[in-house]
Amino acid sequence: MSPFPPGRPLAFGLDNSDPGTPDVACNMRLPATPPSAGLHASSSLPHLPTLLSPFKSSPLRHDSLGQSPAHPSYPNPLSPLATALSPVMRSPSAGGPGSSLASAASQPLDSFRSERDLPRHRDVSDMPTPAPATRAISAASLPDTSSPAAASPPTAAHGSSLSAAVASQPPQAAPGVAPAPAPVPAPPPTTLLALNPALPGPLRRRTWSLEDFNVVKRLYKGSTSSVYKAVDIRSGMPVALKVYFLSKVPRNVVHMVKREIELHHQLVHPNIIQLYAAFLDADRIVLVQEYAARGDLFHLLRQMGGRMSEQQVTELVMRPFLDALSYLHARGICHRDIKPENVLYTERWSLKLADFGVSINLNDERAVTRAGTLDYMAPEVTRCPLKAEPSDNKHDPSLAYTSAVDVWAAGVLTYELLVGFTPVVAPPQHHAAMQTPVGAFMAAQATPKALHFPTSMSAGARTFILGALAEDPGDRPTTKELARHPWLAGAAAAFAQA
Q1: Is residue 455 assigned to a domain?
Q2: How far apart are CA 279 and CA 338, in angstroms?
Q3: Is 415 assigned to a binding site?
């Protein structure tokens, strides 16, 4: 029997032609998959087989790369992102006929909605206006480095019409002599948008192009982007390529791509997926990211029976997760989409926080958008109205929320890992909904104070969850305070003595 409540979808909007592949850096849920080939990890846990004893994995293909050295002094040659993207954003083909994306690309504003904002149970009223139907993009649409296109033969530039016609014909090879190969055209120029300051040595180069990678398979396909597993030809390193197709990116979402690159490329932490580089290739923006071979926490949880022990939650998840979240909050970055699908693992079981598509820097702008996944949204996020333009409600301080929304999501995540499903702790936000019998019941019972726990759960775990789920954001602990909670400290001490 499934440990998840009925009606909770496992996936939506997915490419069913490639089932069973892990989601690398996207906001979608894919079918469970056995762990596969690996990347390096910055750290590994002692006694890991003991923690993972309920989890039966298939044999791994060992193509680990070892630990990548950091190069904090490596120069970042990126020019301002908005300047680099402005020619493409002004193109009428980007975002539909006749549209101009220059204004949206230059605004460091919050998003209105994207498919990342959709709840796990789709609500049509919350969806943005759908884009026109387009042809599905497959991995075959990416450049194939093994079969370069043949160039057209040169034509005569002067002489009589007859000699010009003769000269315009392809040169005929002598009998028994193989014809000379046609010249290979130079690839179109690309523009480097961002470079990670700790770029691994094997990936260091002056120019970046899709020609540098062999695409292995597509991991995810959305309406505006796709994610591929690829191998860097020069170094042999596996990477994840997140490709945005600018012709399909709506006008209201362009600034999110720009902001994602600006925030993510500068992050260097052992528990955060690394964005190696981002470059503009024709009408595509390509994000070259670290590849997480073990897949995401959601599928790992399913393979472990739907729940984890307290020791597994504290050591495998919460300690490294809170370390990564504290790193973000110290820099003013609010993730806004914490959930098991965005917690990934490398071959050596190093936790990696991923997907910064809806993240925001609170030092630069005000967060007033209903963004994220509904099951993990804090009350102050769900009360934000829907937006039609990125600038909507930006000047309304009463709607602004803080990084405490990530702490709420951490509490929801902890409860789900220990119990097997997310808690119902979000009462109706509209007065009309509360007048119905169901709404009145939800208003009284769907609160952290009325939350029920299994009798087997320790008192420390309960106080940890209830603290993170405080209804007033000011009453919630910070991520550093959560990391010092006695429940985590006690579990670490017990694990060390085991």
Answers
A1: yes
A2: 27
A3: no
pTM of the shown model: 0.66
- Over the stretch 433-456, which tens digit does the pLDDT of each residue have? 556 676 666 666 666 777 889 999
Has 277 been labeled as part of a binding site? no
Count CB-CB contacts under 10 A for residue 287.
Answer: 26
Is residue 182, in this structure, part of any structural domain at all? no
| pLDDT at residue 215 greater than cutoff 60 | yes
- Helices 459-468 and 486-497, interaxial angle, to 10°? 140
Selection from 230, 263, 194 nearest residue 24 by Cα: 230
**Cβ proximity of 352 and 99 under 8 Å:** no
- Taking the C-alpha atoms of residue 189 and residue 207, their distance in angstroms, rounded to an integer, is 9
> Known catalytic residue: 364?
no
**Structural domain harbouring 459:** 48-64+295-497
Q: Do the annotations mark residue 252 as ligand-binding?
A: no
Structure tokens at 221: 């396909």
Q: What percent of the chain has pLDDT over 90?
A: 48
342 appears as a binding residue in the annotation = yes
Residue 452 lies in a domain: yes
Of the listed 337, 375, 392, 406, which one is catalytic? 337
The domain that holds 344 is classified in CATH as 1.10.510.10
- As a whole number of angstroms, the distance between CA 394 and CA 369 comes to 9
Instruction: Look at the chain and report how many structural domains it folds into.
Output: 1
